[in-house]
Amino acid sequence: MLFAVLGAVVLFAYFSTFERPMTTIILVRHAEKNIEPANPNPDLSPAGQARAQELARMFGDAGIKAVYATQYKRTQQTVKTLADKLGLAPTTVDAKNTAELVKQIRAQHNGDVVFVAGHDNMVPEIIAALGGPQLPIIPETEFDNLYIVTIYRVGKAKLLKMKYGSPMPASGQGMTQ
């Protein structure tokens, strides 16, 4: 069922208009990271590595033209397998500069499918800046949210929110941004 929905979204974004191309942005918060209080830039945990593999499986044939991640290892490792499968070098963006990321997507990827890995506060900011709804910060224990923003024209966007990968354990493995 998930593949049918994802396939329909990508196909609809590709075929539905010839006059004004639609841009599709797939967004996730980084996958689970190791809990290392003294390390501000930890690696993904084994659960996070498995989640990153799932992204490559799900989106390896989705027509993605660009991959973005922040300067932190957890976002870079979240997109690495997908980017490698696509033969793309991820573009690194500043986690605190959502406006610049949105500007790049709008200027360089009109009509494309773009993948972005961000953080609990950054992903909702990007969605709103792209014309989607204002969402709350993603809870610190949630790593399985997947958002697909389809921009029909400047200022008009639709949002599809789903879950992917294994459900989060009750213990909420992996904390904070």
Describe this structure in words.
The chain is α/β, with parallel strands linked by helices. The chain has one domain (2-163): Phosphoglycerate mutase-like (Rossmann fold). The chain contains 5 helices and 6 strands, in the order αβαβαβαβαββ. α2 (46-59) packs parallel to α3. Mean pLDDT is 88; it is low at 171-177.
Radius of gyration from the alpha-carbon trace, in angstroms: 15 Å
**In the CATH classification, which architecture applies?**
3-Layer(aba) Sandwich
Instruction: Write out the CATH superfamily name.
Output: Phosphoglycerate mutase-like
H-E string: HEHEHEHEHEE
Described by strand count, sense and barrel closure, the largest sheet is: 6 strands, mixed
Report mean pLDDT, rounded to a whole number: 88
- The number of distinct β-strands equals 6
The percent range for helix content is 25-40%
Give the terminus-to-terminus CA distance.
30 Å
- CATH fold node name: Rossmann fold
- CATH hierarchy, class: Alpha Beta
The tally of structural domains comes to: 1
Alpha-beta classification? alpha/beta
Q: Unreliable segments (pLDDT under 50, ≥5 consecutive)?
A: 171-177
Give the spatial strand order of the biggest sheet.
3-2-4-1-5-6
How would you describe the shape? Answer: globular
Q: Number of helix segments? A: 5
Strand residues, percent: 15-25%
